[in-house]
Amino acid sequence: MKQLKKFALGLLLFPVTIFAQEIDYSKPIPFDSTVKTGKLKNGLTYYIKKNAKPENKVDLRLVVNAGSILENDDQQGLAHFMEHMNFNGTKRFPKNKLVDYLQSIGVKFGQHLNAYTSFEETVYFLPIPSDSPEKLENGFNIIEDWAFNANLTPEEIEKERGVVLEEYRLGLGAQKRMLGRYLPKMMYKSHYADRLPIGKKEILEKFQYDKIISFYKDWYRPDLMSVIVVGDIDVAQMEKKVIAHFSNYQNPENEKPRKTYEVPNHKETFVAIESDKEESSAQVQLLYKDYGLPKPVVTIKDFKNSLVEGLFTTMLNARLDELTNCATPPFTYGYSYYGQTWARNKKAYQSFAMSQEDKQLSALKVLVTENERARKFGFTQGELDRSKADFLASIEKRFNDRNKTNSENFVSEYQGNFLEKEPSPGIEWTFNMMKKILPGIKLNDVNGFIKEYIKDDNRVVILTGPEKGGLKKPSEQDVLNALKVNADQIKPYEDIAVAKGLLRNQFAAGTIVKRESNDKMGTKTLFLSNGAKVTYKNTDYKNDEVLFEAVSLGGSSLYSNEEMRKVQFANGALAEAGFSGLKLNDINKFMTGKIASVAPYISTSTEGLRGNATPKDLEYLFQMTHAYFTDLNLDVTAFEGYKQKQSAFFKNLASQPGFYFQQEFYTYLNKENPRFNGLIPTEKTWGETDYTMAYKKYKERFANAGDFEFYFVGNVDDQTMESYASKYIASLPASDKKEKAADTGYRFLKGDLKKVVNKGADPKSSVTIMYYGDAVYSPKEAAALEALGEVLTIKLIEELRENESGVYGISARGSMNKVPYQAFNFNIGFPCGPENAEKLTASALKELQKIIDNGPEAKDIAKFKEAELLDYKKNIKENKYWLSNFTKSFINGTNPAEILQTEEKISEITAKDIQDVAKKYLTKDKVIGMLMPEKS
């Protein structure tokens, strides 16, 4: 590991002239040779790559280079409507047969099977099993039908109107209203201002069938399409399938030109100041739009320029992050970048911040000042070196995991190549070229970057925020004044020295007193001299990943009611203080070029730490863990800064109807719980908050490492784990005391209850149906309740979405828990129109009652099992799945080896099991929560 670090450092310090001779910057960026790509005679482009992660699975994607920007005035919203229609029935899969078939092979609607429509494109996602020729063939049948054989019958179009209108309804609210007012300035005199993909309500309600048919015929054509195939497949076989399924289709004789719409330049600075009574946060956006079209990245010189751009962005954002971590942060968060606007062919240098409601102008001033500071003085060598180190660390991690990358990541890359000609040279070329180019990038290269983009014209400033009494709205002149900074008063950035290490106190290492192995699970456990246990599993799922969690029982359940109310909202601030006498900015600088992080937490029933690292940086994870146990800082100023940022985020959150409903609903359910203090902090609860007490309670919770179990999953080896565990964990203070989470005795209200909350101006509602209560935990019943949720979701989608066209999305979830007390929980939730809320609630309960009375249908159980088995086969080769299993097993006191029996347990679930838990738990009291709009 030390050799690797020296190698990376050497790359940064090596004389530039040696590398400069090796690079011909005029050469084009090559295309990845591991990808089979081609174009059919009709113009359809295809990409095919063999990739074995996950096994026995293939990601198919149909990309159509046509979106809402191509709609006629009387077609607004029909590009997106067409996307819906393709799931509603095709030539080979009429009516609901498509979703029915895919569910039968384990593909979940919405979770796996999905699509999106934007201004420029429409994209369909189809991940399917590749373990049988029939499934593969049907996968190609489906994307071929999507491309050319949709059933656009009047009956199917009418059925889908309601679903699309429900999705339209979901987008209503403060953001939509303000967007409609500022978009004409942001996208000045361009087609984009009039072509939001969701469309117009009046058109969606009344369009004639020929309008959507003509859109489909005009724009779903081979020369505007790409088929992407990545997965555990035979490349030559897949290429034959692409040719067989797509070669026979022709482009229209009088095809419409695929226009590219421009965004005109303007000499003015446009200012939009928008507010809304339902907006919760104050935001600032500053755009400096390019004059011309985006420059394509074609040559190695272009690639170098993109690296310069990335280094610039990284350094500037590091400065903005430092400001957010100070005692008086100017905003909750802020960032800048150079990239696309809403139009594919118009880029802009953009700065963004979320601020306190009355600090928008000062936030804008800070963004402008930092841009000007970078333009006038540039960056320091230390900043550049750290950014280069971060780039190298990131690309090295991707390179090391090049054979462990999920197929979906490649699919997105090739989509970008097709739609926007983004280069796709492959990770090997990118890694090697970055190592060559980065050392040669000088401060002058980066410092000149911003000068090209900051200007006084073609500029747009957008302020959005809450509207309420007593809050003064800035004027346009106020905004224009904030854009003016006195460059003579701006000083260069001071680059404070980087810390020398993460630990400051001396400590004596402990020892390993016993070792155990579990060959069945592939784990090893170290019993340490202070009583702590370290269990680790070495995997080959990722080459450059180690995941970590330490967990102990107790959490805030051991706090008194008064203590809980005083510390609830301060717990999140504890890590903001840093550790070992280092502030967050010191730690972040020290960790430049190193990939390791740890975050402590205190939940209701547990306390612990979560983290991740690359194998070479694993020691830093152990050091952070040691510091969080023994040397967390107490810093009142850091807490005050945290409180300011949190207040900016939460202060007006209740103005959002959806959140207001959650707050009112859960306050109602917790009426008898003195520990409940609201979902978010208010001025009153901030006043009650005691940061010092929160710190003391934290120290109590982390005083005894012997009460923790430490879990590691990933690319770890015995020697490294034993060395670090004995040094950093066995040395932690500990005792023999073992704690359990306490049952405080407080529960949600009981009874057959209904709570209606009126909030919001838009015709939007949402419904929550809850069943809950104490129950003796049973692994079999827990599995059956989970299965009931999945099976009921299938039926709810069929009935409430497909048959009644009343919802866009709906789901049901069931579970049982053992800690802090044994209980069950079952929820059904969906958004809908207010006029349909009662009817759809009755429909949902009717579907549940069918299962209670008759049990689930065999085909639905089969769909559930197929999907669960498919997910399990993917998850069992993921580090995060194993880590979650270890921590859940510890908390519940169960055997983690049960994970190996998952397939058997899924197969054993019967219709009777599901019906039995439905009868046992879902025929008694229920609670219905409804959000309804305010009464006019």
What is the CATH H-level superfamily of the largest domain? Metalloenzyme, LuxS/M16 peptidase-like
Q: From the coordinates shown, what is the CATH architecture of the largest domain? A: 2-Layer Sandwich
**Mean pLDDT, nearest integer?**
95
State the distance separating the first and last CA atoms: 68 Å
Give the number of helices: 31
Low-confidence stretches: 1-21
Q: Which range does the strand content fall in?
A: 15-25%
Shape: globular
The tally of domains stands at 4
- Total beta-strand segments: 23
Q: For this structure, what is the CATH class of the largest domain?
A: Alpha Beta
Descriptive report:
With 936 residues, this protein is of the alpha+beta class. The chain has four domains: 36-246, Metalloenzyme, LuxS/M16 peptidase-like (Cytochrome Bc1 Complex, Chain A, domain 1); 269-405 and 419-489, Cytochrome Bc1 Complex, Chain A, domain 1 (2-Layer Sandwich), CATH 3.30.830.10; 512-658 and 670-729, 2-Layer Sandwich (Cytochrome Bc1 Complex, Chain A, domain 1), CATH 3.30.830; 753-932, 2-Layer Sandwich (Cytochrome Bc1 Complex, Chain A, domain 1), CATH 3.30.830.10. 41% of the residues lie in helices and 18% in strands. It is built from 31 helices and 23 strands. The strands form four sheets. A seven-stranded mixed beta sheet has the order 12-13-14-18-15-17-16, with helices on both faces. Strands 1-2-6-3-5-4 form a six-stranded mixed beta sheet, with helices on both faces. Strands 7-11-8-10-9 form a five-stranded mixed beta sheet, sandwiched between helices. Helix 20 (618-630) packs parallel to helix 25 (718-729) and helix 26 packs across helix 27 (837-854). Residues 1-21 have low confidence and may be disordered.
